[in-house]
Amino acid sequence: MSTKDKVAIRQLPTGVPGLDEIVGGGLPEYSFNIIAGEPGSGKTTLAHQFVFANATPERPALYFTVLGESAIKMLRYQQQYTFFDTSKLPGSIRFINLSQVVLENDLGAVLEQITREVEKVNPGVVVVDSFRTIVRKPQSDMDLQSFIQRLALFLASWQATTFLIGEYAEDELRDNPIFTVADGLVWLRQTAERNSIVRKLQVIKLRGQNSVPGLHTFRITDAGVQAFSRTFGLVGHLKDPPSHRRLSFGVPELDKMLGGGVREGDSVLVAGSSGTGKSVLATQFIAEGIRRGEPGIVAVFEERPQAYAERATSLGLDLETPQKDGKLTILYLRPLDLSVDETMHSILDAVQKIGAKRLVIDSLAGFEMALSPGFRADFRESLYRMIFALTGIGVTILSTVEVDESFTEFPFSTYSISFLTDDIIRLRYVSIDGQLRKIMVVIKMRGGNHAKDIREYEITSKGVVILGKRLTEYQGLISGIPVHSDRPDSTEEPSLDTAIEHKA
Amino acid sequence: MKLHPKTRDLARRLLEYEAMAAESPEPMGSATLHVYERLRQSLGEFVGVAGFQSLATRALALARPDAPGLSAARVTADGSLQDLGEPEPQINDDKDQAGEYPGGPGGAILIARLLDLLLIFLGEALTLSLLRNACPGAAFDDGNSVNGRRT
Questions:
Q1: How many CB pairs below 8 A link A and B?
Q2: B49 with A99: Cβ contact below 8 A
């Protein structure tokens, strides 16, 4: 059968930001869906968002309430959400209470009343909240199965997209006939992780289209449910063609050490202990980008945007003007129960808004602390997805990471994430001639030559300034406690590691 | 709890609307009963019988101190109103301006109390929306009305 012979299934917007992408573009029209989850997980709110997004006077929504939350209180609370449009009631959205018939009659009578109301109103959307309470009365499996089957058939025949809302436990998935009949099954979960609540949703089943598998975080805000796809909203985005362009750090000697600068689309890690100038270097990187017409995003977790900009000013770097001009966004992301997906959503919004080419994450430690404890366990995996997604759309990322200074080791990061980054620049203190001085070395540069030199630098009023030539008169610099050698200072240009293969 | 003048006005409009809808003069109190029935049917659909019954019972309890004539009135299990009784001539008109209501003072206060509860729980926009559905043609929120009807 050719594509043109196949029935086209119209997809209805869910009204939930982020959810359309997760379900594969929207919910299939006339589908029979279950929204399952524990009390307080957001089921009713999600259903309301769908209803408000799709109900019209011509094809209204019928919202059947049963024994759970009283309708009057449900409306009292739901109207606090920004999506709640009072003018849609009761013309486009009608609430009907089924409590009486459920309490006093059998399932046949319930079906009869639903049928009567549907035939009267000809709704485009039908919600039963909560369906669980309808079928809670003792009845035979066959009665229940027959009721569900007839209800599904009837509502599909009347061309209604249906949602049954219920508090189900996951172990019911296998035996409950409702899950067999349903075309779509969205499961909402919320778990307490130490002092934070982590909310995740899963599209367990959706007939007729590809949904994004796995658990996706979501949040309930004044705007209702907002979902954050694991694909970060980047489904369908083509990766920009590989660029060989080099991006300057704004520190000429460092650019030389990097073989001309950072490759566009790379992920760079600047690692060092406290006070070594990681943030200064990151600020120079972003400021240089803006100077060259490359908008940037700075995601800060440890200080407020104003303080960040003021510190840049003290280095002679103006971050205020580009913010006003829409060339720079400083994101302050500090709630303590963030998910990486939410952070990514904020960053991606900002990237798309200003067309950012450079992104600074300052710092990974702050980022991790901003996450809910439950998400910290998956930090590396989340970071991998985030870096992959962002570099995939051509953004060059510079992340700072604090490492414990050790005089016996030379760690690159505490997260074992060096494999996630293309380039690593290590900053550290060394004890030389009775002074605590600073050295810098490019550890790794995937797909490009870089200098092997260990260079001394200082943080001045102009930012990071690399001093003189490479340090040749000391042995064991990376230990932090070098030994003076008798060799004279080198006057050679920085040597590039030509042995490294170019793996573009 | 004192009734807001806006709620009184809303009740008055509803009762005027219902009084005008009656083709022949009816006994005092029947406009109240008609309005009450309209609300019971319309609100009962979405809050359920029990939901409406509990709201009406609360409204009656709140109305009684201002309308002694409601002492015999009761809300039945299905939410309908019984034994509304006759209007009380001793009602304090200055306090409640109840004499203006075509449905009689006690019943008018009951309707106003019921509307007040809706306004408290659902807010003005949603309450008016529901009332428009219950009483199509009635004017609730503009000055272009005569006897509670849209002009």
A1: 59
A2: yes
Which pLDDT does position B29 carry in this prediction? 60
> What are residue A188's phi and psi, to 5 degrees?
-105, 130
User: Nearest chain A Cα to B123, which residue?
Assistant: A76
Does A86 sit within 8 Å of B133, measured CB to CB?
no
Please say whether the beta carbons of A314 and A460 come within 8 A.
no
C-alpha separations of A494 from A42, A461, A500 in Å: 59, 25, 15
User: Is residue A55 within 8 Å of A243, Cβ to Cβ?
Assistant: no
In tens, the pLDDT along A282-337 reads 999 999 999 999 999 999 988 889 999 999 999 999 999 999 999 999 998 766 66
How far is it, in rounded angstroms, from Cα A498 to Cα A445? Answer: 12
Q: What's the pLDDT tens digit per position in B94-118?
A: 444 444 455 557 888 999 999 999 9
Query: Which of A379, A333, A325 shows the shortest CA–CA distance to A360?
Result: A333
pLDDT at site A35: 96
Is the bond preceding A130 in cis, omega lying within 30 degrees of 0? yes
Instruction: Using alpha carbons, list the distances in angstroms from residue A64 to A129, A150, B42, B49.
Output: 6, 17, 15, 14
CB atoms within 10 A of CB B46: 23
Nearest chain A residue to B117 by CA: give it: A72
Q: What does the block give as tokens for B97?
A: 């301006």
SS (H, E, C) chain B: CCCCHHHHHHHHHHHHHHHHHCCCCCCCCHHHHHHHHHHHHHHHHHHHHHHHHHHHHHHHHHHHHHCHHHHHCEECCCCCEECCCCCCCCCCHHHHCHHHCCCCHHHHHHHHHHHHHHHHHHHHHHHHHHHHHHCCCECCCCCCEECCEEC
3-class SS string, A137-198: CCCCHHHHHHHHHHHHHHHHHCCCEEEEEECCCHHHCCCCHHHHHCCEEEEEEEEEECCEEE
Residue A499 has pLDDT above 60, yes or no: no
Residue in A with minimal Cα distance to B51? A70
